[in-house]
Every structure is written in structure tokens, then in C-alpha cells.
Amino acid sequence: MSTTVDRAQIEALVRSAIRQAQSGSSQPSPSAPVLSGAPGGEPLGWVNGKPNLRVSISARHCHLTDEHVEILFGRGSVLEPDKDLYQDGFYAAKQTVMVVGPRRRMLPNVRVLGPTRPASQLELAFTDSISLGIDAPVRHSGKIEGTPGCVLVGPAGSVQLDQGVIRAARHVHMNDHDAAFYGVSNGDMMQLVIKSKDCSVIFDDVLVREDKAAKLEVHIDTDEGNACNLDAATEVTIQPMPKPCACGH
């Protein structure tokens, strides 16, 4: 599936809105309180001998290829780190793009995350996709086959994506020590329990993404974070998905 927008319309949008589009901020922001740093000798991200769970709200953002960075921001351009993310080696870039969907609906100031990737991808929450006018499916990052496209607009040019617009499925990054602690493996599903006054929520189907360099961190989108009032959460825990009982329920 693809979204086609006339190039003249794109240029008109650039002239009328590009300054505004490049002046804001829309980067993922950590939302749950978390202790910092692990003493020497402990597994990565651990505190006092145990995994240190962090739950972060991942706001709408996009990942770009090297080629698309140059098209959008000018020949020879590279992503410029602005703020390091919790996972080592990943960052919110200084650059933002405007996203154009069907019927000229727009989302300005969508943050680019680095480093670059083999395929460009736009990650939205459900309300973002409604605003943009795109029926974005829930997918895990990188699984973009058959997804809708959009137009990305930068200060130097525009890129039409034939696919790559998704609602990112919730997931948890962890290393092998975290996985052993919880008794899970890469690709398993876990359950995130968030206790918050008057709106506690249990999120099922949290995909385990295991990597030796990862620190324990759950990513949920802005809609999910708002639903459980994550900023005011009093307790966050994660556990393997409960197994069905012998009766089949």
C-alpha cells in the first residue's frame, strides 16, 4: 500500500510550514522513575543485585536510511545527536521531519532517532495515525512489509515512503542476565503490570527483545502511557505471561 501526494502540494506545504516544522520537539521521553547506574561487577543496568526495570513512553518518531537523510537534510548531511536514549548507542537526533498523509493531513516536528537503519520507518500511536489519516497496523519494529506509506518533508527535500508506517507493538529490551532472571527468551511474551491511582492497567503481549548490550526497558506508546497515567504510577512490574490452567481457561 502507498500514499501518493502531488509534488506541487508537497512544495506548497514546505513553503508554508517548514519553519514551524523544524522548530519543535517530539522525542521519546522516559516516564517512569528509575534508579541510575549499576555498581561495578553487576550485569548491565542492574541495581543492588537485581534488574532495574524502566518503562518509557516512546512518542511518535521516525528512523531513516543514510540516503533519506541526505535527501531530506541536504547532500552530505548526517544525523546529529541531540539527546542520548536509555539504550546505549541510540539517540534522539536534532533533526525533525514533517509527515504528510492522505488529503494533505500533516504531523509537524516528528523527531528522527539514530543511528540510521537499512529501511526508513515511521512509528505512531493510534491517535497519531487517526490524525494523519493513515490506518497504521500494529507491528514490531522492522516488520514493515505491506504497511502503508507516507511523505516525509525536510528542509532540503521530500521522500515518499511506499511502506513503513506502523503502530509500534509494545516490547521490552533486556540482556541475557535479565532474561535468565525472569525465565524468558528472545521472542517470548511478557506481562507489564502498572499500578496507578484509579487507572491501573495490565498490558499483555509485551515482546521480549533480548540483546547482550541492552538494559531492561519497556517501550509503550503515548496512548498506552496516558491510559495508565504512567507519570503517576506507584508500581511497575513485569512477569512472564501467565500460562493457561489445565481446564483450558
UniProtKB/TrEMBL annotation:
Molecular-function GO terms, alphabetical: acyltransferase activity, transferring groups other than amino-acyl groups; metal ion binding
Keyword terms: Acyltransferase, Bacterial microcompartment, Metal-binding, Transferase, Zinc
Top-level EC class as recorded in UniProt: transferase
Region (Disordered): 19-40
Coiled coil: none
The protein's Enzyme Commission number: 2.3.1.222
Domain of life: Bacteria
Cofactor (UniProt): Zn(2+)
TM ranges: none
InterPro entries hit by this protein: PTAC
Biased composition (Low complexity): 20-33
Xref: Pfam families: PTAC
GO-annotated cellular components: bacterial microcompartment
Cell compartment(s), UniProt: Bacterial microcompartment
Similarity field: Belongs to the PduL family.
The protein's name in its UniProt record: Phosphate propanoyltransferase
Organism: Rhodopirellula sallentina SM41
Organism classification: Bacteria, Pseudomonadati, Planctomycetota, Planctomycetia, Pirellulales
